[in-house]
């Protein structure tokens, strides 16, 4: 079992920044790739960013490319999502997820490949 707890969400003005954190426990953190997804009311959950076990491979959704940065600190069992130049359309509940049993440099953009999910943290961007 893996437990994931997100934090760092909140209300921010358009153009502002937030950093989300996701603390993991239950299994060695470097044994799974990590991803961030988001879900706005009435929408499906969508891919935001992913990072491999090594931290050397990252992927981003088209709508956040160049504005968001995913990173991980394997010593702190934490994955981060730095969000800059936020827009109202970034408003959503953000979830982190763990993908177990993958290769060292692998990361997935597919929601159904992830095995464990956090409870989510709300991000609201005002215009």
Describe this structure in words.
With 127 residues, this protein is mainly β. The protein is built from no helices and eleven strands. The protein has strands spanning 3-7, 10-13, 18-25, 32-39, 46-51, 58-60, 68-73, 78-83, 92-100, 116-117, 121-126. Strands 2, 4, 5, 6, 9, 10 and 11 form a seven-stranded mixed β-sheet that branches. Strands 1-3-8-7 form a four-stranded antiparallel β-sheet, with no helix packed on it. The radius of gyration is 13 Å and the shape is globular. The mean pLDDT is 96.
| Helicity range | under 10%
**Proportion in β-strands:** over 45%
Count the strands?
11
Radius of gyration over all CA atoms, rounded: 13 Å
Q: Any idea what the shape is?
A: globular
DSSP summary: helix tally = 0
Question: Low-confidence stretches at least 5 residues in length (pLDDT < 50)?
Answer: none
The structure class reads mainly beta
Distance between the termini: 40 Å
Q: Mean pLDDT across all residues, rounded?
A: 96
Largest sheet: 7 strands, mixed
One letter per element, helices H and strands E, the order comes to EEEEEEEEEEE
């Amino acid at each position: 079992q893996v437990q994931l707890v997100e934090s760092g969400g909140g209300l921010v003005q358009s153009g502002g920044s937030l950093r989300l954190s996701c603390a993991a426990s239950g299994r060695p953190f470097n044994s799974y790739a990590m991803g961030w997804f988001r879900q706005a009311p009435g929408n499906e959950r969508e891919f935001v960013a992913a990072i491999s076990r090594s931290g050397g491979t990252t992927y981003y959704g088209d709508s956040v490319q160049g504005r968001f940065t995913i990173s991980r600190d394997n010593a702190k069992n934490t994955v981060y999502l730095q969000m800059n130049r936020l827009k109202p359309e970034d408003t959503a509940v953000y979830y982190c997820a763990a993908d177990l049993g993958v290769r060292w440099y692998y990361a997935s953009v597919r929601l159904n490949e992830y095995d464990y999910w956090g409870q989510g943290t709300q991000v609201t961007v005002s215009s």
